[in-house]
Design goal:
This protein has 242 residues and is an alpha+beta fold. The chain has six helices and nine strands; from the N terminus they run ααβββββαββαββαα. The strands form three sheets. Strands 2-5-1-7-6 form a five-stranded mixed sheet. Strands 3-4 form a two-stranded antiparallel sheet. Strands 8-9 form a two-stranded antiparallel ribbon.
Length: 242
């Protein structure tokens, strides 16, 4: 079998093997109590039936194909699904923005929000693309959907991405402005505070941004948004006793 890390051997130690990921067996029902305790409505998550219908619709016409997945946040270091290949990628028509205000208990709570990245239409976004084999598509994309489509924060869409080994069409999860968690007008000051203080069952918002910075350093990617947010959040933490 061909090495999935053949293009970027240094990523091998930075990406959690799918079989070791706690998110591979993630069950949305397992966080129901936490999310409801943080003030979410009882309709906060998609039903299993609605989630599967959404997956089938998004992948319609591609059922017999390998699928590329564009990673711009935590999928970069913890995809949870099995992949046959990973490449550095640049998607020219979208942009990474820290506009997911996490108040449901993932990396922040209603009282102490956290922040995570979401994808918007914009001026370009660096990340990774992972290739899922056609014969594994159903099983592995169901794992992806349970993670990215647990609720309504993200919407599946296909986009163009360039790689050093040719262009690909990749599945990405875009920000849904109708979702409670998406705050498109979130100020930089709020992003910094939420990054510095937000914590939940997934970990801290600070570690989330720091993980992005670590991977970008390895890939020689310059992302001013990530660099600035991490530096400002570190400075905020230094000025405040948590």
């Amino acid at each position: 079998m061909t090495d999935p890390f053949r293009h970027h051997p240094s990523l091998r130690s930075l990406i959690t093997p799918p079989e070791e990921s706690e998110l591979r067996d993630f069950d949305p029902a397992s966080i129901e109590e936490i999310v409801l305790a943080n003030g979410a409505s009882k309709t906060w998550k998609l039903s299993d039936e609605a989630r599967e219908a959404d997956r089938v619709q998004a992948l319609k016409g591609r059922e017999e194909q390998d699928i590329w997945v564009f990673a711009y946040g935590s999928l970069i270091w913890n995809p949870a699904f099995r992949f046959a290949e990973v490449r550095r990628a640049f998607a020219p028509e979208v942009e990474r923005k820290f506009i997911l205000r996490d108040i449901y208990g993932g990396r922040g709570t209603r009282d102490v929000p956290g922040v995570m990245a979401a994808l918007e239409h914009g001026h370009g976004c660096h990340g990774l693309v992972f290739r899922i084999r056609a014969e594994e598509q159903v099983e592995e994309t169901r794992i992806l959907w349970r993670r990215e489509r647990v609720g309504d924060a993200y919407i599946p869409s296909f986009l163009r991405a360039g790689t050093d080994h040719g262009p690909v069409e990749a599945l990405a999860f875009m920000a849904n402005h109708d979702a409670e968690l998406i705050a498109p007008d979130l100020s930089h000051d709020d992003q910094v505070r939420f990054c510095a203080t937000g914590q939940g069952w997934l970990g801290s918002s600070f570690d989330y941004v720091a993980n992005l910075a670590t991977h970008f350093e390895e890939l020689r990617i310059e992302d001013q948004g990530v660099t600035r947010l991490l530096a400002d959040a570190r400075a905020w933490k230094g000025r405040h006793v948590l």
